[in-house]
Amino acid sequence: MAKEKPDLLQGTLDMLILKALQLEPMHGFGISVRIRQMSDEVLQVEQGSLYPALYRLEDQGWIKAEWGVSENNRKARFYELTAAGRKQLNAETENWARVSAAINLILKTV
């Protein structure tokens, strides 16, 4: 029986993209692969969700993009976390910790 891929909660994709970019700049496909790897193959971000999110994050000033050449010698946009993006990642991480702890408390209630 194949495992069903869980849906991402509204707003979590931005946080996951920022987290994926925390260590180094990367292109869109690389971000998708990094999220899948970091989630132990549970979360998969489709291009139809990823690229609109990247453009939105760029508009908000949380990431910046530059054209470069990928590892397979193709032209690609590489995305990088900005200082504002690092601050936003910290804020979203703290908020996620509070919200997920509260949800876990509710789920443990008999």
CATH topology: Arc Repressor Mutant, subunit A
Please write the CATH class name.
Mainly Alpha
What is the makeup of the main sheet? 3 strands, antiparallel
Low-confidence stretches: none
Widest sheet, order of strands? 1-3-2
> Tell me, what's the shape?
globular
Evaluate the radius of gyration: 15 Å
Mean pLDDT: 92
Characterize the structure shown:
This protein has 110 residues and is of the alpha+beta class. It has a single domain (12-108), classed as Winged helix-like DNA-binding domain superfamily/Winged helix DNA-binding domain (Arc Repressor Mutant, subunit A, Orthogonal Bundle), CATH 1.10.10. Helices cover 54% and strands 15% of the residues. A 3-stranded antiparallel sheet has the order 1-3-2. It is globular.
In short:
The chain is α+β, with helices and mostly antiparallel strands. It has four helices and three strands; from the N terminus they run H-E-H-H-E-E-H.
Kindly list the characteristics that best describe this protein.
3-stranded antiparallel beta sheet; single chain; alpha+beta; Arc Repressor Mutant, subunit A; 110 residues; 54% helix
Topology:
Elements lengths: L11 H9 L5 E2 H11 L8 H13 L3 E7 L5 E7 L1 H26 L2
